[in-house]
Design goal:
It is a single chain. The protein is α/β, with parallel strands linked by helices and 189 residues long. The chain is built from seven helices and six strands; from the N terminus they run H-E-E-E-H-E-H-E-H-H-E-H-H. The strands form two sheets. Strands 4-3-5-6 form a four-stranded parallel sheet, with helices on both faces. A two-stranded antiparallel sheet has the order 1-2. A hairpin with a 4-residue loop joins strand 1 and strand 2. Helix 3 runs parallel beside helix 5. The radius of gyration is 23 Å and the shape is elongated.
């Protein structure tokens, strides 16, 4: 019985391995614009398939999102705001100390290059968004953009501060009211 089970496991593993290889071949051929192939197990060879390839999951836009390691909200919110076909959000996490202080927020600048490197390193990104308002205020939008530009040249950069300022200009806002979830001490940062 043990030999039969081992043989079945080996057979299933081989099938899964072949399917994984087929998947990688399909992805490779899709990227290369070649024809897809299907494994014909009965005849022991590959059979060409006629197909029309789409632009992939991020055909319209690929957004890289830098998320604080302890943030549980931003990813679900962004997915709710952007339920568009062909728009995908890919996240990378950045360490953040439990204590929120100007020094801890400023320290994220040193972690930012690695977080950006981990965002789809071999794939296209149209924009990188840094998802920390307080960190954006302390580090500064220009410095954030400079760090991202060094790692991913040519990719646009967004953060809550520059996005808010651009929205105010676009909408012609002259006066704002501000409500924050932070303590008075946090608001002073």
């Amino acid at each position: 019985m043990k030999i039969i089970v081992q043989s079945m496991v080996k057979y299933r593993f081989r099938r899964l391995a072949l399917r994984a290889i087929l998947y990688r071949v399909e992805m490779w051929t899709a990227l290369r614009g070649a024809r897809m192939m299907e494994l014909d197990e009965e005849n022991g060879g590959w059979v060409p398939l006629d197909c029309v390839l789409d632009g992939g999951p991020a055909a319209r836009a690929a957004i890289g999102l830098i998320v604080l390691a302890n943030d549980t909200v931003i990813e679900p919110e962004v997915r709710r705001f952007l339920p568009l076909p062909g728009v995908e959000v890919y996240s990378s996490r950045i360490p953040m100390a439990r204590e929120v202080s100007p020094e801890c927020l400023a320290a994220m600048a040193g972690e930012l290059p690695r977080a950006v490197e981990l965002l789809m390193p071999e794939h296209r990104l149209d924009v990188v968004a840094f998802g920390c308002t307080s960190g954006s205020m302390i580090i500064g939008p220009e410095r954030i953009a400079g760090i991202v530009e060094k790692v991913r040249p040519g990719v646009k950069v967004c953060n809550p501060v520059s996005a808010s300022l651009a929205a105010f200009v676009t909408l012609g806002v002259r006066r704002i009211g501000l409500i924050t979830p932070y303590s008075t001490q946090g608001n002073r940062i």
